[in-house]
Amino acid sequence: MLSTRVIPCLDVHNGRTVKGINFINLKDAGDPVEQAKKYSCLGADEICFLDISATNEKRKAMFNVISKTAELCFVPLTAGGGVNSLDDFRKLLNSGADKVSINSAAVYNPTLIRESSEKFGNQCVVLAIDAIENKIMPSGYEVTTHGGRKKTNIDVLRWAIKGVKNGAGEILLTSMNSDGTKKGYNLKLTKLISENVNVPVIASGGAGSPKDMVEVILKAGASAVLAASIFHYGVHSIFSVKKEMFKNGIKVRNHED
């Protein structure tokens, strides 16, 4: 049985870590390089670095910042934002990222998932899905792009299944309705996806406490939990999350360190 991963997320805008509610009203949360180093030392299993404004600003990810982050980070690093081609994949991996997250580009060019998986291996390909509630969709959820700003008329469940079929090795699933609210993950959405794909699902959006993280694992089948606000502002620590998980019978790494 694999250990459940705890993943701090660094949402980066203009070179700074930021956090808001539903990806708006962004507040500064520190230097991403220093934060990655800190989380690496405090027991994070992985770190996720997302350049959240790269796609909207039609620019590439900040490879230099990612390179500095990777140098000081001693755990696997997933990087994303502004990824549109195999060359972008290559540059991110060469900058020190272990995995690359793709979202908007995959929606508008689904072949990118297969091409990157064949070129670099599916273990490097993370399909990020930003989901919003939409009762018209068969699953009840719609895929959005550009940080949740653009609707796509694509059903989340169908897209997740297609993405895995095309070669995605992992799904980073964010409930845009829950993001930043600290009211808990969307259990219904997470369970829907985790039960219908055969790759790990990272739950994202809404973490407010260690109990929320335990719940999304035990009740919704998440393989990993991602959070930002509660770690950035010191509301909870990675240690307290792992301690709560261990207490509830969830296998974790270094819960006593």
Distance from N terminus to C terminus (CA atoms, Å) equals: 21 Å
Please, what is the average pLDDT? Answer: 88
How would you name the oligomeric state of the polypeptide chains in this document? single chain
CATH class: Alpha Beta
What low-confidence regions span 5 or more consecutive residues with pLDDT below 50? 20-25
* Major sheet summary line: 8 strands, parallel, barrel
N-to-C order of helices and strands? EEEHEHEHEHHEEEHEHEHEHH
Looking at the structure, what is the overall shape?
globular
Strand order of the largest sheet: 1-4-5-6-7-10-11-12
CATH superfamily: Aldolase class I
Total tally of structural domains: 1
Helical stretch tally: 10
CATH fold assignment: TIM Barrel
Strand % is 25-35%
- The assigned structural class equals alpha/beta
Helix content: 25-40%
Topology, please?
Blueprint: E1 5-13, E2 16-21, E3 24-30, H1 32-41, E4 47-51, H2 63-72, E5 77-80, H3 86-94, E6 99-102, H4 104-108, H5 111-120, E7 125-133, E8 141-145, E9 150-155, H6 156-166, E10 170-175, H7 187-194, E11 201-204, H8 210-218, E12 224-227, H9 229-232, H10 238-247
Helix pairs in contact: 1-2, 8-10
